[in-house]
TrEMBL record:
Name listed for the protein in its UniProt record: LacI family transcriptional regulator
CDD domains with a match to the protein in the record: PBP2_Bug27
Highest taxon above the source species: Bacteria
Family, as annotated: Belongs to the UPF0065 (bug) family.
SUPFAM superfamilies attached to this UniProt entry: Periplasmic binding protein-like II
Keywords from the UniProt entry: Signal
PANTHER family hit by this protein: BLR1237 PROTEIN, TRICARBOXYLATE-BINDING PROTEIN
Lineage: Bacteria, Pseudomonadati, Pseudomonadota, Betaproteobacteria, Burkholderiales
Signal peptide positions on this chain: 1-37
Length: 335
């Protein structure tokens, strides 16, 4: 075989090898990618900014159980109390945006940045909204052995004794605190605010008569009212609550213009994957339609809500605007 023929055969063989290598490379690049893990494939943590025992914690645990049933994975409540939820908010903000750290938040989420320069976040842009869960009135309560039997009597005595009456709250900037400040402002009272770390913390002192009054969430206070340990003078919304129709509104009981309610919802860190948000939103909306879940909220004095992520973010933005005006009037903005 001459040299020319041998060279031709070598080129032919190398061409076949090149073709085979090219075909294998094509097979690798066109092979289906491994399937992404279905969310959630590990426990999901729901952060709560208050201690166990209050209504916020109780509803968060009920919600966690329902979401876990629906999505086939554990949802675990993680309490991180302090600074009116700021500790929990900042923890959530720093967490990975993978859907495994969520935050059951409330009205303090929008009021904190308005009240405290140390709250360095923007509710409109720094988180991912998932959906609103509920709203609820607060209720003005006094100890069962209190001399005050109605709001007019309380206001009249408070005006005679400036600085002597007090009210407890679950923390500065909470709805429980703001309800008391709004009451004092509209009634023209000088009262002392005593903040605690959560509603469960101050209830024992209130029941024992060491506090004049408080404005806890109705779901927290209702069992104690029914049990005769606290006396209710009025709910903070303009209309009575269906869960406690015998309790008048503060406005109808003697303080015109008073109106206050709190709300709760689910958010996560900024930049969560859209498919994860969609999964959580769908599960939340279906949970809000769950008859057992709705009934438990209604019996506690809460109003079940449910909303899309976009609608909840719009609500948060509206709340921020509204509270900015209210806090400015009460001279509680930007401390």
């Amino acid at each position: 075989m001459d040299q020319v023929e041998q060279q031709a055969r070598r080129y032919k063989r190398s061409g076949r090898w090149a073709m085979a290598i090219a075909m294998m490379a094509a097979a690798v690049t066109t092979a289906p990618a491994p399937a992404l893990a279905r969310y959630p494939d590990k426990p999901v943590h729901i952060v709560v900014g208050f201690t166990p025992g209050g209504s916020t914690d109780a509803v968060a645990r009920l919600l966690a159980a329902k979401l876990g049933e629906r999505l086939g994975q554990s949802f675990v409540v993680e309490n991180k109390p302090g600074a009116n939820g700021n500790i929990a908010t900042e923890y959530t903000q720093r967490s990975p945006a993978d859907g495994y750290t969520l935050y059951y938040t409330s009205i303090g989420f929008v009021t904190n940045p308005l009240m405290y320069k140390s709250a360095r976040y923007d509710p409109a842009h720094d988180f991912t909204a998932i959906g609103q869960v509920m709203s609820a009135p607060n209720v003005l309560v006094v100890p069962a052995n209190s001399p005050y039997r109605d709001i007019r009597q309380l206001i009249a005595d408070g005006r005679k004794r400036p600085g002597e009456l007090n009210f407890a709250s679950s923390g500065t900037g909470t709805s429980v605190h703001l309800s008391g400040e709004l009451f004092a402002s509209l009634a023209g009272l000088d009262v002392v605010h005593i903040p605690y770390k959560g509603s469960g913390s101050f209830m024992s002192d209130l029941i024992a008569g060491r506090m004049t009054m408080a404005f806890p969430n109705l779901p927290t206070a209702l069992p104690l009212i029914k049990g005769g340990q606290l006396r209710a003078l009025g709910v903070t919304t303009r209309t009575r609550s269906g869960a406690a129709p015998d309790i008048p509104s503060i406005e109808e009981a003697g303080l015109p213009g008073y109106d206050m309610s709190t709300w709760y919802g689910l958010i996560g860190p900024k930049g969560m994957p859209p498919e994860v948000v969609a999964t959580l939103s769908d599960a939340l909306l279906k949970t809000m339609d769950d008859p057992d879940f709705k009934e438990k909220l209604l019996q506690s004095g809460a109003d079940p809500k449910g909303s899309t992520p976009a609608a909840f973010q719009q609500f948060i933005n509206q709340q921020t605007t509204a509270w900015k005006g209210v806090l400015a009037k009460m001279k509680m903005e930007g401390n």
